Amino acid sequence: MATSSLANAQIESARIVAVNRRADLLMASIGILVLAIATLLLASVFVGLLASGWDRLINPDFYTHFPSRHPQQAGIISAIVGSSLVMLVTAVIAIPLGVAAGLYLEEYAPKNWLTDLIEINVSNLAGVPSIIYGLLALGLFVYAFSLGETILTAGLTLALLILPVIIVATREAVRSIPLELREAAYGLGADKWQVVRMYVLPAARPGIFTGVIVGLARAIGEAAPLITIGALTFIAFLPSPPVQATPPFVNFDWLTSPFTAMPIQLFNWVSRPQAEFHVNAAATGVVLMVMTLAMNALAIYVRLRLRRLHR
Amino acid sequence: MQNPTKTRVKLLMNEMTSSQHTSGAMRQQQDVQPEPTSAPVLRAEARNLDFWYGATHILKSVSMAVVDCKVTAIIGPSGCGKSTLLRCFNRMHDLYPGNRYSGEIQLYPEDRNLIEMDPGMVRLRIGMVFQKPNPFSKSIFENVAAGLRVRGVADKRILYERVEQALSGAALWDEVKDRLHDSAYGLSGGQQQRLCIARALAPQPDILLLDEPTSALDPIATAKIEDLLTVLRNTVTVIIVTHNMQQAARISDFTAYMHLGKLVEYGVTEKVFTTPQSPMTNDYITGRFG
Fold it and tell me: What is the ipTM of this complex?
């Protein structure tokens, strides 16, 4: 009797192990399948663009020429410069504002209904369609502040757009810092600002950085808000350079310069009837994707590096 | 040397627990005759301390004196409020909403109620070591220097001197002196906890609070920490919370037994463990309860 119950128990546990193993296998297969579909889709888009735009991509003129009526001579230099300068403005405005706002909400704000309301709104703002930001910027920056259709306006608009992303990322990063670390710092007699500056911010850096890059990568691909504020599609000159040889060595005239950007150039070319321009559009798409992927790669690299420093 | 002092401490303890009035009188007496040998010097004293978290009444009229340069252990079953009491001494509760104190914890020699002081000020004077070793993700040197940096010490020479002093005080210097600038996470759990003790010692606190400092450590690491506390005894005022009665018996001069938020018994460790006054203490230390 005893031996048979022991045998039953063995059979039963073998059955449970087999069932669990089958469930593991099923779950892993579904995961791999989903991952493969997503990766293949992305790869096919990339390869498709690469194939259609190849002729232009391998031509160095494409990167050094201004847009032109002749598709063979048209290039993306003004779009690359425009996108880079707009991103610079966006980053300079959105990063300090977003990080400061996130820190305030998480560390300093009193826990009351007003803070809750602000938090809910910030999270919702992250989901607002980008064209709405464009409309806001048109009314506020272009008309009310008379900033015109400039790099500054575009930078401010995209900064608004990614501010919620940075705020939410900062809050998550700060919140994920273990209680023990805070208690250790406070236990030494540190005041709040010392705790934030010496311990919370350094430990939250990888998470904040990831949020910043995700935000910037989103901003660089945005066309709708820039079209709304009146970005030009045909720019045959470059803004004055931000640095110069004569004192004071920096120059902010570029802020008020009209501009075009990569997604706008792409949108413009793809809406032309001539097929040759579509080649240009495909090539621009590849460059834009490479830029975005490069930013994400940088984010991953920096995150890993910071994490290693912190372990 | 040991016996006369202990008798006086016993007398003191009897006086202390009888009523607040007499303890006040005792203090006055101390002021009149400031001879250090006449009675043990107090570092702090909780008087009728009550503490609430939200609506939960956790500490109930706790009165307890902390003697200078002695180890005071707080023991009791889980949930008795021993950690809560410890964390009142450096106002750790103030980091979280919903805390409420009543009563007082007097700090000596200036005789100020730390419940009414700024929490940051209190923590600058009273160091703490936590249950789980919690070094910062910085180098060993910077971990120990952290408390000094918070106090604005920037002189490299002074920092180095105090870091060496603190690491030696925590019996860690010989193990880490060749890798002061390596990450603190490279140390073992026991070493990390001794690092945390060094970090708390570096600013030379008036009182060192230890919240179950060995509960996350293996027996060998625990023994090292206990040795260290035995060495610190007589130079630093220590309050230690422990769930380990043998540990309290081994390393402390005074023992407080808490139950359901009340201080049931407080006295010289030897006496609490050999001839406890309360049957509850007796049940706990003999293992019949808790």
Answer: 0.81
